[in-house]
Specification:
By secondary structure, the protein is an alpha/beta fold. It contains 18 helices and 16 strands.
């Protein structure tokens, strides 16, 4: 093993001349100005090392690329020259500059084993072609790789957390800014107040019929729009391709794919530049489909119904149609035709404000029977059926107030009775325990040593009867109050669902509609374009209450609000279904 002061002694004794290549590397081509000092510092240190040992490198190999994976062109070029015996030593700042992966590390050790590479000289020490030095060099390569792997895991973990929080990892697109002022791990995608308003306007104008070439002229000439200035890029007008890229990027409608190319689409928390509906129409006009629609579209009722004919799952399917401005033909967009009229051949992008129609259908997936004849149903007609069913349950709000008041009143009335029942049950429980204890005392009494007072068979029989009675009393003590409270809560939830479900279904998003749909019953089936449910019994009860309330309210004609409240209370109290509980 050699020291920095005597790296050449071994080779001088054997009259071997060392010819050096100098190798300098920084991590990547990105952030050049931030890492430029790294190369300058390496150069300064290596110049001092050459002067101290009175050597001169034959060539200087400088590279700006990560060594985490093989494939660095300048590094490979240096090894090829060493293979050709143009040099037999390397001068570098640290072994981790040479490699951070075991493939390149193996090449270095192999060159040493073959006698083509005799020394690697660094400011701290020299690694020569000896077993111990090669072991130490291999150890340095392993440490470098471990360090790179650890950093990679930490970075991926941070990016995954950012993605789970709803913020797309990576460089923010035009109109947005990366948050650099927040602690790492909590950074968001911020709005660029100077550019996002123009991005929004670009979407609005194109949706209203402005051609892309005109959008480019307006942005550059009238708005004087310039891209975000970076250290070496940006600060330039929008190109035509950039306008198309903005119009077709799902990020602006709140969707992003991560990792890129994985097909996993996520909902972002950043401010949207355009609504999802408008963005989808724009994609049709551009003659393309937004990629997130294939994997990220959520349908409210998908995977919830089965075909009533063949029992296959019911799937959602969407269709797009366009009415041509030239020949007035309504044509569908398919895999074979995405961008032009099937009648006159006119491009959709060239049409002035074409009419775009979008439909969603639910149909049998035909997994169990490919010849199933069950017809599809449009989503609006399916929702009409659900709305009609919910309408049959739409009890007036005043009934909810009355019902909750009655439940509370009945609970108060039942409280004393429940207390008396509980006290009686507890007395019976204590008496039963005492009987069991007395039975045991009698069995073990000295007077019963011969079994004349209580035989073994008689003891077992009476003990079994008392234990069974004790078990029943324990169950009564534990469940009465809780069961009544649980029943009251279920009643309140059922009445609340009946009153509010219809309005929430009309205004709710896909998740809300899905939850309400599931509340209508189990095992929904689509047959003859009608959805049929196995509805729970309480829904039939509520439906009957709704009919009786409507009939009763028709007879209520109050003179004032006080009369209205009293008459409605009397009306609700007289409903047969309510009286039956």
């Amino acid at each position: 093993m050699s020291t920095p002061g005597q790296p050449l002694k071994l080779f001088m004794d054997n009259k071997i001349t060392l010819c050096y290549f100098r190798y300098r590397r920084k991590s990547s081509e990105d952030n050049k100005e931030r890492q430029a000092a790294s190369l300058e510092d390496q150069s300064y240190v290596l110049d001092s090392l050459e002067a101290r040992h009175h050597i001169k490198a034959l060539a200087d190999f400088e590279e700006s690329q990560s060594a985490h994976t093989p494939g660095r062109p300048r590094f490979n070029e240096m090894l090829e020259k060493i293979e050709k015996r143009e040099a037999n030593a390397i001068l570098t700042w640290h072994p981790n500059r040479i490699c951070r992966n075991m493939t390149d590390g193996g090449k270095i050790i192999d060159l040493m084993d073959r006698g083509l590479l005799l020394e690697i000289l660094t400011p701290s020490r020299a690694y020569q072609n000896t077993p111990m030095d090669k072991f130490m060099l291999t150890l340095e390569f392993g440490i470098s790789k471990k360090d790179s792997d650890d950093k990679s895991i930490a970075v991926k973990r941070g990016l995954d957390k950012k993605n789970r929080d709803g913020w797309r990892p990576g460089v923010a697109p035009e109109g947005y800014l990366n948050d650099k002022g927040t602690e790492s791990g909590f950074r968001k995608v911020l709005t660029d107040p100077e550019r996002l308003p123009f991005i929004k306007r670009i979407f609005e104008l194109f949706h209203d019929g402005t051609p892309v070439i005109e959008l480019q002229r307006i942005a550059n000439k009238e708005w004087h729009y310039r891209t975000r200035q970076k250290k070496r890029l940006g600060g330039k007008p929008l190109t035509l391709g950039m306008v198309y890229w903005i119009l077709s990027n799902p990020f602006y409608c709140g969707k992003y794919e991560y990792p890129v190319g994985s097909g996993n689409w996520h909902e972002g928390k950043h401010e949207r530049a355009v609504s999802e509906e408008v963005f989808n129409e724009i994609q049709v006009r551009l003659g393309r489909r937004s990629p997130y629609r294939i994997n990220g579209q959520e349908f409210a009722f998908s995977a919830m119904m089965r075909c009533g004919v063949c029992d296959s799952g019911v799937v959602a399917e969407q269709k797009w149609q366009v009415i041509c401005r030239s020949c007035k033909l309504k044509f569908s967009l398919t895999k074979n035709n995405k961008d032009r009229c099937t009648g006159c051949g006119m491009l959709i992008a060239a049409m002035e404000n074409p009419t775009v129609l979008h439909y969603i259908y639910y149909r049998c997936g035909k997994k169990k029977n490919r010849l199933c004849l069950e017809k599809s149903i449009r989503v609006d007609r399916l929702e009409e059926q659900v709305d009609e069913k919910l309408g049959k349950l739409a009890i007036p709000d005043c009934f909810l107030e009355w019902a909750i008041e009655q439940i509370q009143t009945m609970g108060e009335q039942d409280h004393d009775f429940e207390k008396e029942t509980l006290d009686a049950t507890q007395r019976a429980y204590q008496e039963c325990k005492q009987k069991l204890q007395n039975l045991l005392q009698l069995k073990i009494s000295p007077a019963n040593s011969d079994g004349s007072l209580l035989s073994d068979e008689g003891y077992r029989t009476q003990k079994q009867i008392l234990e069974q009675e004790l078990k029943v009393l324990e169950e009564q003590l534990g469940g009465n109050v809780e069961k009544q409270q649980e029943a009251d809560e279920k009643t309140k939830k059922a009445v609340t669902f009946a009153i509010r479900a219809q309005q929430e279904f009309k205004k709710g998003d896909s998740k809300k509609k899905r939850d309400i749909f599931m509340g209508l019953g189990l095992h929904p089936k689509l047959q003859e374009r009608i959805v049929r449910f196995d509805s729970p019994k309480y829904l039939f009860t509520l439906e009957q209450i709704k009919k009786e309330i409507d009939n009763g309210l028709e007879r209520v004609a109050p003179r004032n609000q006080v009369d209205l409240a009293s008459q409605m209370g009397a009306c609700f109290s007289s409903i047969p279904t309510v009286l039956r509980g």
